[in-house]
Each structure stands twice: as structure tokens, then as C-alpha cells.
Amino acid sequence: MSVSNKRFPEGFLWGGATAANQIEGGFDEGNKGLNIADVLPGGKGRLKVVNEPGFNYEIDHEKHRYPNHEAIDFYHRYKEDIALFAEMGFKVFRMSIAWTRIFPNGTELEPNEEGLAFYDRVFDELHKHGIEPVVTISHYEMPVNLTKEYGGWRSRDVIAFFERYARAILNRYKDKVKYWMTFNEINSAMHFPIMSMGFTTKEGEHHYQAIFQAFHHQFVASSLAVKACREIIPDAEIGCMILAAPVYSYDSNPENVMHALQKEQMFNYFCADVHVRGEYPAYAQRFFKEHDVKLELHDGDIELIKEFTVDYIGFSYYMSITEKKDKKPEEIIAGNVLEGVKNPFLQASDWGWEIDPTGLRIILNKLYYRYQVPLFVVENGLGANDKVEEDGSINDDYRIDYLRSHVEAMAEAIEDGVDLMGYTSWGCIDLVSMSTGEYSKRYGFIYVDKHDDGSGTLERKKKKSFHWYKKVIASNGENL
To answer: Rounded to whole angstroms, what are the CA distances from 187 to 65, 162, 200?
Structure first.
């Protein structure tokens, strides 16, 4: 056991993070409509299925298994799970609201009371245990109806549907939620737009035109949500949320250094620049020109984006990216959803994700000194194969080592002067993996007896990391 000599600030927001579509289950209960996650099958190829001929966003039980339909049944077991979070000492719990629980098709004029009441119960249970909810308004759960009828965020019409949804939940939970974020990992659409934008580009379509027009619609929608939050809950804090990964050059060749810089600008900074600075950066304007992207802007869009910027940046951190300009397909590291080439100085997880705790300190410094707004690490964790021993114990020392090194990196960043609000470890309870649709890719402090073949009792068990994280929180990050 090591004892850190770096202190986290008083009131630091320790907790855990999840998403509705990955934990709730109850996919057809409470008058809930279908979302994108409900029609994506389980398995490592789930993000590729949508590009297969004939995929129509329908459920096909004869061909596929759909783990998100049951997930870990938080919908019925939330009290048990929240009690376990409280036992660990959580100050906050990052969660999302399922859009289709509130507006089943996305287009209704009035919200679904059954869905609203469910989250009332969840928030009340959290507050009973002294835990503040941190709520993501849209976390990879576009209503399927909006995808089929409007093409997802391709359509400007979706802005109005999103604003109606945002205003409905802000009004309903104005006395229960004070930390909000608009879109989860909004920049992830650079790599897999199906999750955050609700569409994939088709063969022959101008990929960048579709993606960046959809980004613009989301930026307008995000600003409208910020505007609504300021009106309805003036003392709330509302942030953006990005997937952050520092981009390293493969070597000191200036061509590779420049290539890495351009990748970092468009991936890490583009969305944050618009959310925080309220404007499209010059490097993006050049990118648009060079790739023949012509954004359709409406009167008032730019002014709205400029006026209603976010209060903080929430971000996920799992890995860094190493880039070189002329990489060959066989050089791209297997398992890394963000592409890039192998970094010879890093080890990788069971799923091929490179482990780089120093990269967290690097990106914290880069983001803070670029934007000068508070930062919030709202996702970070290790997906691994966990083994239940004969005595029922789960000795996940590898997860403790991973998390310890990342907590130490945050402490160093705070010492560097970074204003860090809090840390919510991803998948604080085992859940369905977004990227692979697997139960076996486990992140949690709490083991859930559920498996890729659909078997399992859903029983909850505390892993060794549960007790470790409890000590970390109790000591405010001193006892690691």
C-alpha cells in the first residue's frame, strides 16, 4: 500500500459512472421506446453490423443476442446497487437518463410519466444515501424512431425534439440534480457516429459533410440545453463531455509530429473549442475547406453557440493514441477503437487498450491550460476478465493497480495547478460494454453474475477493488 503525499481538494467529487442503456434493462417496460443500443446485438462486431446490407434497426432474435435488453437489471435493482455505492462512500453517481423513457419515439409533445417517475425514484434513493447525481442528458441512446424517420442528427429537426426532452427533465428534476452534461463523448462520432449521432454514413455519401453537419446540429442543441438550464436551475452546473486521448507522435520526425498535432486538434479539441470557446476554430475551418465541407448555418446559430457555453468539461480517459503520417493498415493496434499505431513503451489490457496513466496527467494539463475551466474525469477504468474464486472472492489486483496509477496521475495534475472537480470510475458496477456488447469485459468494483451467453443470476458480489476504493474515498485520495 502506498500513501500519497498529494492532497485532493476538499469536496472532491469521488464516485462511479454508468449509462442507462448499459445497466438499466427493462428495455420494453414503463412505456419506454427503442433506442440505438436496444437494436445493436452483443459481440465484438456490434458496431460493424449497422453497415451490413439489410440492417434496418429492427430486433432479430433469430440472428442476434441483445444484452442491453436486460443489462444488469438496474431498473428493478437500483436500491440494492445504490446502497452498495453508498457503502463505498460515493459522493456522486454519474448516470444518464434514457431519452426513450421520457419520449418513447422522440417526437411526442408530452413526456412519459412512467419514465419521469422512475428517475424520481432513483434520484430520491441517491439523496437518501447522500449521493449527488451527475446526469448526462444524452448518452448513446438516440431514439430509433428519430434514426429511421429523420436520419438521426443529420436532420436539423432533431434539435427541437432534443430541446423539448432537455427542458422536460430540467424542469422535472430541478430540485434533485445540480450537475448536468449534454452529450456523452460527443467527439466519438469521428470514429463511430452510430452511437452518438444515430446514423452511419453510406457508401458514396460525403462522410465529413454528414458528420460535421450533425455536429453543428448537436452544438446548437447543446447550447439550447445550457440556455434552458440557466433559466430553470440557475445554480446548476452544466458541462460538455468528450472522449479525451493525448496524441503522441510515433517519433521526432516533424512530419509525424505535425500529423499528431492535427489529429489531436480535430479529435480532442474541436468539440471542446465550440462548447467552451463558443466558436469554430481556424484549424477546423481549414479542415472544412480542404475536405469540401460546407456547413448549413441558420440565422442566430453562431450567436447562440457563443452565448451559451458550458461551465466545465467532463471527459473520459482510457488510453493515449500514437500516430504516424503514413501508417499501414497492419500497423494499427488491434483492439484500440481510436486506431493509432502501437506504442512500444505501453502495455495493453485484455481487450488491447493501451494503458497510459501518465497520459491522463498530460491531457489534464493540456485541457486545463487551454480552456481554464474546471475539469471532471467522468470515465476511467479497466475492462478485464474477472475470475470468481472457489471461496467466492474476486481478487482484481490488476484493476487496483490500474486505478491507483490513474488516481496518482490526477494528484500530480492537481499539483500542476489543474482545477479538477472530481472522478467517477467507469462501470463502478459491471455492465454491458458499449464497444463490444459483452458482459465479460468487466469494469466494476461490484461483480454481477451475468455472462455473454445470457446465463447468470444477476447476484452482486464485492470485488477486492470495492474495499480499496472505499479507503481511497474515505481518505480523500491519500490512502492508495
So the answer is: 28, 18, 15
